[in-house]
Write a structure and sequence with these properties.
By secondary structure, this protein is an alpha/beta fold. The protein is built from ten helices and ten strands. Strand 8, helix 6 and strand 9 form a beta-alpha-beta unit. Helix 1 crosses helix 2, helix 3 packs across helix 4 and helix 7 packs across helix 8. It is globular. The two termini are about 25 Å apart. The structure holds adenosine-2'-5'-diphosphate. Adenosine-2'-5'-diphosphate binds next to helix 9.
């Protein structure tokens, strides 16, 4: 998968697999990212709220790669909304990452995590205006959202006319969020799949295991290939070398019939609250 890309609506190329760093501490992220970069990943997904941007930056320096060879995504924390807050925390991320631009900057969620479901439309629109300005100034190559539903994105487009390039959502076999999935496809908004292994909970699923056996591969590879074959960009997370290496070499050409079987997997994970 190392040479595979998606092309965003503004023609920016984004490496088709991102290394997910949610729940990796700032100290552990240095080694994990370094292994990822040495294994061929060129796309790292972090967030100010993960408290590991400095570690990501350290790994990039240690790798010897040039800044422009790596696609960095980071996110404005869900609780900071509005034009000035966006500016302030965007600059903090630039400082932590020791860079003068971000490849992809996302609004982490439509509401603060302490206020899930509450209407922050007005505040999100002000935040979005700031992100558009930063994008126009060249400080961000692409802008988007995360955990947004159709109505949340529609409000941004109605107010500004600017369609997000990306929506990063919790997406995996059994949690395919049809409404927002179809809406993003229709608007040419790339869906990034966070927790593509359902934070590990799909790795013992009996239906997935059966299909993995058929293709003589790992359950993880079926999960990641499913995301990719559905045109979503998976962001697998691991702190183990063999898994990090595996997760960028995952591709299995799952037949349409088997995809249909996987489409029917019911996942109890659906009932868990969102969090990235
Ligand atoms: P670890 O970090 O200990 O390697 P998700 O990407 O959906 O958030 O899932 C991450 C979870 O899945 C982590 O607990 C990670 O464990 C585990 N994991 C990641 N890749 C693999 C793999 N290839 N095989 C088995 N477990 C994996």
């Amino acid at each position: 998968m190392k040479d595979k890309y998606f092309t965003l609506a503004n023609n920016i190329k984004i490496p088709a697999v991102g290394f997910g760093t949610w729940q990796i501490s700032n100290s552990d992220v240095v080694d994990a990212c370094l292994i990822a970069l040495n294994s061929g990943y060129r796309h790292i997904d972090t967030a100010l709220a993960y408290n590991n941007e400095k570690g990501v930056s350290e790994a990039i320096k240690k790798s010897g790669l040039k800044r422009e060879e790596i696609f960095i995504t980071t996110k404005l924390p869900a609780q900071y909304k509005g034009y000035n807050e966006c500016l302030k925390y965007f600059n903090e991320s630039l400082k932590n990452l020791d860079t003068n631009y971000i490849d992809l900057y996302l609004i982490h969620a439509p509401w603060p995590w302490s206020d899930v479901g509450k209407d922050y439309t007005k505040e999100n629109i002000e935040t979005w205006k700031c992100m558009i300005d930063l994008y126009k100034q060249g400080k961000i190559k692409a802008i988007g959202v995360s955990n947004f539903q159709k109505k949340d994105i529609e409000a941004l487009i109605d107010a500004t006319g600017f369609i997000p390039h990306v929506n990063q959502i919790r997406y995996f076999i059994g949690n395919t969020q049809e409404e927002i999935y179809n809406y993003c496809q229709e608007k040419n908004i790339l869906i990034e799949a966070y927790s593509p292994l359902a934070t590990g909970n799909l790795l013992n699923d009996p239906i997935i295991s059966k299909i993995a056996q058929k293709y003589n591969t790992l359950n993880a590879n079926i999960c990641l290939s499913y995301c990719y074959l559905k045109h979503t960009l998976p962001l697998p997370k691991s702190t183990h070398k063999e898994r990090i290496v595996n997760n960028i070499n995952f591709f299995v050409n799952i037949s349409l019939d088997d995809i249909k079987i996987l489409d029917q997997v019911h996942n109890k994970e659906l009932d868990r609250p969102l969090r990235s």
